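Ticket reopened. Same input as before:
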Amino acid sequence: MNTAELFPIHHIRIDELYQSRKRVLEVLSGLLADDELGGQQATRIFEALVARERLGCTAIGHGIAVPHGRVDDILTPRGALIRLREGVDFGAPDGAPVTLVIGLVIPEDCPEQHLEILGRLARHLNDPDERETIMEAQSAERVQALMVEWLKDSAEATAS
Amino acid sequence: MDATNSFILLGALLLFTSILAGMASSRFGFPLLLIFLGVGMLAGQDGVGGVVFDDFQTAFLIGNLALAIILLDGGLRTHIRTFRVALRPAVSLATVGVMITAGAMGALATWLMGFDWYYGLLMGAIIGSTDAAAVFSLLKGSGTRLNERVGSTLEIESGINDPMAIFLTITLLEVISAGQSLLDPWILVFLVQQFGIGAVLGVAFGFLLREVLRRIELAEGLYALLIASGGLLSFALINELGGSGFLGVYLTGLVIGTARNRGTFHVLRIMDGLAWLAQAGMFLILGLLVTPTAVLDQIVPALILAFALLLVARPIAIWIGLWPFHFNWRETTFIAWVGLRGAVPIVLALFPMIYGIPDAERFFEIAYVVVITSLLIQGSTVPLAARLLKVEVPPLAEPRQRADLNLPIEPRLEMVQFVVGEHTDADGAGLDRLPFGESVTVAGVVRNLALRKAERGFRFQAGDIVLTIIPEDMINDLNRFFTGERRKKAALAEQTFFGAFSLRGGARIADLAQVYGIQPPEALQEATLDEAIKSLLRNPPVVGDSVDLDRVSLTVREMDGPTITQVGLKFREET
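Engineering reply: fixed in the latest deploy. New output:
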């Protein structure tokens, strides 16, 4: 698979406005779910994301959160991204309201990939310049291009 | 009258110059005490000042007074909760460690200087105690924060090894001047009496003073003076009753310090000034007292002793003293390296003169060289050593100004001012981006020399001074928002150090395994992260401790007392 499939353009929303963390996670689950399977899968994804949030908030500081989880009825990893116009309180350790939410779900049987993609995302988001670039990207296409670039190597690794 | 005025003039001039010189010195990470000592020496009989001062009695009096204040201040500052991780190792270092140091140095001094065996031991005892104040002011100046196990061990060690070194010195002097043997049973009685009376009465005075402070209403500045005079009272009375006043006054401070109540904040600030004055005054006097040309006569054996202390005796003493406590080698090495000697050895070196021991000046001169060498060599390398040995954790920054509001609310509310820095998360951000927005009240913002309200649509700008009312436990996060530079990659960035993701200490290992598909050991399945980390570590945990679990590593990120509340999660791929 390639990264453009991991973050398809219709999984990226960059000018949204929601009131709560729960609402953000619901919308994110909807984006991550297969269109034909619809509601049922979205619910399972939502539950997986919430299960992870219960271990501790997935906000990683500077207004960014990376909710993630494992789901049994998907075949490949899937990502989605929501950028918010106003911050939503995620209960982040640094207290910052979250404005960038990157969601990731992984099939049950490949935790190896799971950790690698998360680690890679975390490393890029740790870089102040890269953080600023994605926060200020003007279009969904630009955001998608950034994700492709960040995750290029891991996509290659999983393809082989 | 003229003499009085010139005395004041001289004293004030010395203090004034030293403090100004000290400001410059802290930029270079140069121990401040050396400046005071240097100014004193310059003013002294071999220096430009040419002031002849050889009144050992006066110096002894000032030395004792200053030590009592410094120990009181040290006790006040010691957080009793640090005892959890550091009390036992620190006690081991202050007893076994000091004796090993004194013994080893004593053997060397006996051989090197041709001293009598008891004189050699005396020399070892005099230079046996450490001074953590210098260490902490240096670390603060360089923005380094030590892991709690190392920091607290050093801090408590230096507080309680002073009484031990003082006890050894006095005991040896009694033995020497009375022509007795060290194996006499009275020494044991003396030890029990000194430490027993000192400990019991010191704690008792502490509780008494704490109660007095709780009940009375005073002008703010007077609290500190009341504590200082109360501490001195405790010191002198305990000495009078045959106990160790030095141990007593430290414990008195410690007990008073456990009550974090109204005014403690200001008291600590004023006490800080007093302790400073005590240190400065003492070092100035000691600098005046010493005759540098006489020191030069002793320079070769003194330097040998100094280096033997730094490179051999202290490391051996630390290694043995910490043996039962499973410190890792980096921590042990760091503690061994930063055994800075401070004022105590020089004051102790006055004791032989007061006792009228022949050739007593030699002790004084050698102690001088040892202290200066230690301050110069160890002092200037403390931050470097902390970095190389990886005993530091990401620092907690301090805001522009903070003041306790003394409100009956938990957690405590403080009025805190932040300055918005350039290229920070705050720069250009609106009020909705404020961390912990619900709990933070922005009272106003000072911009262009005018106070304005922060209303809807307001955006922060670099240079703003933001006045906030916030719970104290959020200060660090807000400070990072306002002053943490976005572009600057901190040497010890939090995310790199702890990992990107945080987990609750109360989360269960089994749930963690489920989310990440990792295989933790069977025995840990039912445990919480807090329990699992504790069972995998051999010591009580401190922030920065880390354990590996299958393909992830867990780092203690935040603690509340003995409980781990936040854990950093790192994937191997991140490193």
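The CA atoms of residues 3 and 148 of chain A lie 5 Å apart. The mean pLDDT of chain A is 83. Please confirm and we'll close it.
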